[in-house]
Amino acid sequence: MDHIRFGRTGLQVSRLCLGTMTFGFQCDDDTSFAIMDAAYEGGITFFDTADIYPLGGPTATIGRTEELVGSWLQRGGRTRDDVILATKCFARTGPHTWDQGNNRKNIMRAIDASLKRLGTDYVDLYQIHFYDPNVHVDETLQAMDDLVRSGKVRYIGCSNTLAYQLARSIGRSELHSISRFESVQPRYNMLFREIERELLPLCAEENVAVIPYNPLAGGMLTGKHRPGAPTEGTRFTLGRAQGTYTDRYWHDAMFDSVEEIRAVAEDAGVPMTTLAVQWVLANPVITSPIIGASRPEQLAASIAGAAADIAPDVKARLDELTAVYRQGDHDR
Ligand SMILES: NC(=O)c1ccc[n+]([C@@H]2O[C@H](COP(=O)([O-])OP(=O)(O)OC[C@H]3O[C@@H](n4cnc5c(N)ncnc54)[C@H](OP(=O)(O)O)[C@@H]3O)[C@@H](O)[C@H]2O)c1
After folding, report:
1. Domain 3-218+275-308, CATH 1.20.120.140 — does that match?
2. CA distance 289 to 300
3. Torsion of CA 217, 299, 24, 219, to 10 degrees
4. Annotated catalytic sites, by residue?
């Protein structure tokens, strides 16, 4: 597994990051451990989680994913320093209305709760999960800078932000000479390319690391789904997440695009899953796509995406076929 510089920082991270949001609801404990084992054996040493995970689970499961990541870190003779660990805060994770958001009180509470569940005294990357319209970004940045200075956090990042929000945040950090967002975690795949227009050029210019989620569009780009009712047991029927994912990807136009991508993959002799990961990695602004799995055997095809580059003519065909998804009106 290749490594790559994490934006403008001096940190090196593996070219793929493992997403953990299936652990603790869709995946039981043993399956979650097996996925982490398979990723680690495949050379992935960069793990992404969040305080609100697992995806789709009832309220009682909140925090379970971080606990599983923390337990796994203590198994098999590993130490905390064997992985680069990223987590996030923002969503409501406690009983009070103030146990949410990017305000100082919640950030201070949330990091301590995450560190406890993860069984560690620091995370390498602490991200705000969503932009918070109710908090001035200065308050968020000052609180996160304090976490860096206290040693609980090495770098800070953000997720699901618009380009202007990230640009403004960087400007405010510069103004106050405090930590800035060194990374962004947006949605990015062949069926969602809107970030190519504004966010990615900003990241290139400011040397912000980009760690995109949903590289397989939640499984659509594996080619296994067909129009009609979503397949039981998959992301598209997963508890509270079902609506989000069907809204994003379960559309006739996207199924048509998947068929066109399938034809390109067959011509190229590359599995669709591998091709989808290769396509994301081929964008020079991308640092490490965050790959996901609900079973350990699913990972091999994604990991293969980091082992060989996409052929330039194949990339060009896919860019052309999916150009419509650069437009904002496909933002779901
Ligand atoms: N910041 C955010 O708001 C945000 C949002 C989403 C995700 N994330 C992060 O990004 C990570 C990855 O996201 P993602 O899971 O949506 O990524 P993804 O790569 O788009 O989708 C992964 C899913 O596709 C299916 N799949 C994967 N490989 C397969 C294979 N070989 N054959 C058949 N199906 C396969 C599995 O779902 P099924 O088995 O259920 O079909 C798997 O869980 C998350 O774990 C999380 O860390 C962040």
Report:
1. no
2. 15
3. 20
4. 53
What number of residues does the chain have?
Answer: 332
| Beta strands 17-19 and 209-210, pairing class | unpaired
* Residue of 235, 242, 299 best suited for mutating to test ligand 1, as the one with most atoms within 8 Å of CB: 235
CA of 188 to the centre of ligand 1 (A): 12
pLDDT in tens, 146-170: 999 999 999 999 999 999 999 999 9
Give Cα separations from 33 to 83, 190, 312 (angstroms).
Answer: 15, 29, 37
- Position 31, amino acid: T
Best mutation site among 248, 298, 331 for ligand 1, i.e. most ligand atoms within 8 A of its Cβ? 298
Residues in the chain, pLDDT under 50: 330-332
Q: Please tell me the distance from the alpha carbon of residue 326 to that of residue 197, in angstroms, as a whole number.
A: 7
Q: Which long-range contacts (CB under 8 A, 24 or more apart) does 199-202 make?
A: 199/161, 199/162, 199/163, 199/166, 200/283, 200/285, 201/163, 201/285, 202/163, 202/166, 202/167
